[in-house]
Write a structure and sequence with these properties.
This protein has about 300 residues and is of the alpha+beta class. Strand 6 and strand 7 form a beta hairpin. Helix 2 crosses helix 7 and helix 8 packs parallel to helix 10. The longest helix is centred in the C-terminal third of the chain and has 36 residues. It is elongated. It starts with a helix and ends with a helix.
Length: about 300
Amino acid sequence: MNLEQFKSVIEKYLYRFSISTIGISDIVEIIIISAIVYQMIKWLQLTRAWTLFKGIIVLLLFALVAVIFQFNTISWLLSNSLSVGIMAAVVIFQPELRRALEELGRKNLFRNFIFSSEEYEGKEASMTEKTITEIVKASFEMGKVKTGALIVIEQKVALGEYERTGITVDGLLSSQLLINIFEHNTPLHDGAVIVRGNRIVSATCYLPLTDSMEIGKELGTRHRAAVGISEVSDSITVIVSEETGAVSVARDGKLYRDLDREGLRGILDFPRTESVGSRDVLKKWKGLLRNERTEKQ
């Protein structure tokens, strides 16, 4: 599609969408479609597909720029890749599409769209310093007696699909609770716990294993699962080795091994301090604006 064709399509659409032809039914239809799109975007934000969706939006914007500035070769490549892209999107979003269809079959899809924000209410709230202290304390106490542990700390990307593979706990996080969960021969010791904010939401959760060849052969399934979940989300995972008692952390597909207390605290505290720092900058900026307005008055 060249620039002239693009302009003609836009002009034709705008002509049909003139104010004189808009009726009550059109307004209702626009409101309904807007509400559906809005709820779908909110739902996507609670899944791994949100990161992929943002990438697709960037590609679409790039395609629009290519058409406007008449990048003919790029436009040709993008237009011929569209059919392949649709099939690729179906494959990439297959888990999310399957989940949506299952929920539709259970007649819960609309309810989940409407209340999705309530389901994860407070999920973006960062951990308090007390919670970080409890995780550090529990990790090294379990390390002393070589009790294996896998603690997944949710960040911005929701881990609902992995949370559902385990047993709901929904308890306030404490070192005693973590130690009791991972104690040998207890019902909840096998698998991972997922932490959201200051609460343990689920235990005995199954995590995806990494295929990375950089993971040493001396490391077992627990470490591979930790790296695997860090590859598909922005979570931070604390691992306590059952063989050596060493404490490690997996983040962004990388494994940080043999950490001491300060090293572990620094990694866990970084998202919280980063969030607090951003809020402080915003508050200072708003304060400066208020001061400027007061001085002008």
